Amino acid sequence: MSSETIESDELDIESVLGSSVERREDPSLITGEAEYTDDIQRPEMTHMAVLRSQHGHAEINDINTSTAEAMDGVVGVYTADDLDVPGEVPTGWLLPDLKTPSHTILAKDRVRYQGDGIAVVVAEENAIAHDAVAAIDVDYNRLDAVTDPKEAVEDDAPVLHEPTEDPTDTEDDEEIGTVPGNQAFDWEIGDADATDEAFASAAHTAEVDLENQRLIPNPMEPRAAMAEYKPGTEELELHMTSQNPHLHRQLMSGVLDVPEHKIHVVAPDVGGGFGNKIAHYPDEALVSWCAKETERPVKWTATRSESYLTGTHGRDHDTHAELAMDEDGVITGMRVETYASMGAYLSTFAPAIPTYLYGTLLSGQYDIPAIHCHVIGAFTNNAPTDAYRGAGRPEALYVVERMITLGAREMEMDPAEFRRKNFIPEDDFPHQTPVAVSYDSGDYEPALDKALDMVGYDDLRERQEELREEGRYLGIGFSNYIEACGLAPSELAGQLGAQAGLWESGLVRVHPTGKVTAFCGTSGHGQGHETTYAQIVSDELGIPYDDIEIVEGDTDEIPQGMGTYGSRSAAVGGSALATSSQKVVEKAKKIAAHLMEAGEGDIEFENGEFSVAGAPERSMGIQEIAGQAYLAHDMPEGIEPGLEETSFYDPDNFVFPFGTHVAVVEVDPETGEIEFENYVAVDDVGPQINPKIVEGQVHGGVAQGIGQAMYEGAVYDDNGQLTTGSMQDYTVPKAEHIPRMETDSTVTPSPHNPLGVKGVGEAGTIAAPQAVVNAVTDALQPFGVDHIDMPLSNESVWQAVNENAAAD
Ligand code: MCN
């Protein structure tokens, strides 16, 4: 179901929420008016380039910067010895036995991944800075590297970081244990004994070894930063490609030891993030330090190669998973063991991703009585991992949905019916899973039924049989995904190790003219917040959409904020704006009652009009009230002038969107080629603020999920060299790779926020990979192919067919 967009002047205040109004941010983005960080110019501005390690693992014997220093146009060359940065790259999420190795802003004696920063050059021109970097001579002593998380924790693996004392041991323990050098953490969730019992009494089991390959995010705009230091006021202004400017301000304050109120972070137009622009990287700290040191504005923009090497990567899991079932195909247990690569150092939110964002979703849409998940996080000689669209949840749902498909195969049941049989029943919400989270709401069968109907399931299965007779292999793959998003609530996040709250702030200011500026602490970078937030505020205040402006991404304008990731903006930021708008209406109601000489209880509010109950002719519009609120000649007693309100919204729980995606493919066993016949996505994200934006988010997410399933994958060689470090070697999915998509929805509101909304930004990416892999293995069932690791290249599909000689 595709909705047509409408123009803003066609909007009707009664239906502004739920209308597919055109994205208001697009005209400037598509006509070149948008201003990205790299577009910013300042008088006397200099440019920074970073010398990065060419080796995956090496000691640094010597760095000779003399040639670079002598080059015309070079302002300064700095190594770790020159930097007097008090802090290190911070870790924002702690686990009980987490090892947090030192991560200095520039590497000192040793580099641990290709791309590790060694020195910086500040120069009058960008090209000079890069030339000077090339002129720096580093004497390395190469060391053996390890790039696989499972191998990294073996005894004979090259060690990246020294063993440390086990932080969970206390003085009372008889012996203080040590955490081995490459082990970042050893974490588990669920009930191991109950799971063992489920397997001991299982009538049927299924198991699989699978890799969730390392991915490299490719936002259109690479990371960039421009810093300006004002010695007079000791203020630092930092423009940067940020998904969370307030968090970057807070972390930067600690790293540089500059008070937070002296740092002004601005995220101008940001060309996509997909999680890649959440973390605190060394680079923005370097730019800031260089600006302070040189007392000149300094700009740095990553080259595409630098983005590949040093932007945080995603996924990189090696997993063994098992499913236990009774004789009727009822699931009784699931056991998961995962090795997760952290890369060379801990990135800001990395510890949370293969643990709390992963293990807690292993129940999927299913009523599984016993689950146990064990994750070992390992340091490896690769770029650090962190959030990448979905972050932990795609990895979890990939495991769940592959296991469910293999469970159905073991039971010789139809995969849709096996799913239906094991769904959490609709009357069992809120549903407490055995892996800590409580799903607030859900109703899984309608989405499945709709998807089955859309693909014409019964006919498809018949056609599959007929085609097999002709030697053609059609496959149907299901993905019944769930996700936990709307990242908040602070109390829960705190219990799980977050070093920050996860509320969101919203400020709604109604000007004396009745026009509105609303400020939110989220920071959109492609999601259409200026449109959807204006829809929310317009609906709450009854003020026309075109009279409402949205401001995000500037720490001086917006009181505080937590940013945009974890599909939290609609559920948490949107709710903060809705709550502030409601407070504005409450205050305006008091003023209206006073001005109309009526009791407050007699005032009704609808579509921006306050009227006296039973006397509709006595009414005042909210925009008129705003004028009176600032004129302040006749205010009710105890009410201050002005009309603006702020909220810090902090919900009780995550939100849990879900859906059914179905991929239909034909696989050629002779060549390994996969051709899409159909892709159907039925998503339940609660009420949709803007169905067209929701559809766009689903399309984009599915495209990235198909990218993972079929094309993408970072490849490091044994020395830690990234062999897929460019767009030529790393296939980013293009329009021609993406099939026709049919989307539809069901609506199960979340009880946890005033809008009932659930996030959509990551849904497609979480859902799509397993839909594709399940479709391809379904097509190849006659060849006995149970599993193929992603990406499903023609070669790997062909090999799987030929390794299994079971063709009939
Ligand atoms: N929305 C809606 N109705 C709902 C839910 C959401 O209309 N029921 C709208 C929202 O108002 C918002 C958009 O859909 O305009 C996405 O909302 P939400 O799901 O809250 O996600 P966020 O805005 O917090 O965005 C983060 C999410 C993530 S985590 C990644 S990664 C991602 C994604 O968004 N990165 C993106 N989508 C992206 N889209 C673009 N263009 N670029 C990225 O980098």
UniProtKB/TrEMBL annotation:
Keywords: Molybdenum, Oxidoreductase. InterPro entries: Ald_Oxase/Xan_DH_a/b (IPR000674), Ald_Oxase/Xan_DH_a/b_sf (IPR036856), Ald_Oxase/xanthine_DH-like (IPR016208), AldOxase/xan_DH_MoCoBD1 (IPR008274), AldOxase/xan_DH_MoCoBD2 (IPR046867), AldOxase/xan_DH_Mopterin-bd_sf (IPR037165). SUPFAM superfamilies: CO dehydrogenase molybdoprotein N-domain-like, Molybdenum cofactor-binding domain. Residues 1-26, 149-180 are annotated as: Disordered. This is Carbon-monoxide dehydrogenase (Acceptor). The keyword Heme does not apply. Residues 1-13, 165-176 have a biased composition (Acidic residues). Residues 149-164 have a biased composition (Basic and acidic residues). Residues 31-144 form the Aldehyde oxidase/xanthine dehydrogenase a/b hammerhead domain. One of its GO terms (molecular function) is iron ion binding. The keyword Oxidoreductase applies. Coiled coil: none annotated.
